[in-house]
Amino acid sequence: MEQAEMMAVLEAVLFAHGDPVGAGRLAAALDWPESLVLQGLDALQARYMQPDSGLALLRLGDHWQLATKNEYGAYVRRTLDTRRAAPLSQAALETLTVIAYNQPVSRAFIEQVRGVDSSSSVSSLLEKGLIEEAGRLDLPGRPVSFRTTDHFLRVFGLSSLDGLPPVHGRDDEEEKEVTP
Description:
alpha+beta; 9 helices; Segregation and condensation protein B; cell division; ScpB_csome_segregation; cell cycle
């Protein structure tokens, strides 16, 4: 199969799938070696980086998703006639920060860190798709734990959680431990 046809197949599958999909899953579905899929994804990503393209191929950890470029978002929103999502409240941002930096975490852990009830913030973040349940923790009562989602990465423009800015104080503590 020629590279142009391979890229066309990947483009069609990514467009139709809509959600982020792993290279391994693409390889299995297309019956191609994963290395060939990764090569095709890299080529597509390079093509979409050209200024004459309105699309982007996002790498979200080990998943890939076809999306529109941010600079054309206003046109897309107006065309789809969607309203702008309500901004996150300060409480929701604090809750999301606790989850992003410490995941997976229980609601009790979030409330211990914040010092207040976080039920409505957790519910709001679940509803917006920024967090999801991550199973149950091996603690008394087996509480539900939460983690961030791929949607969280997209919204904040991150390819992985490694892209989160360092927490003030953590680097200082690590430097003190390393420095004699």
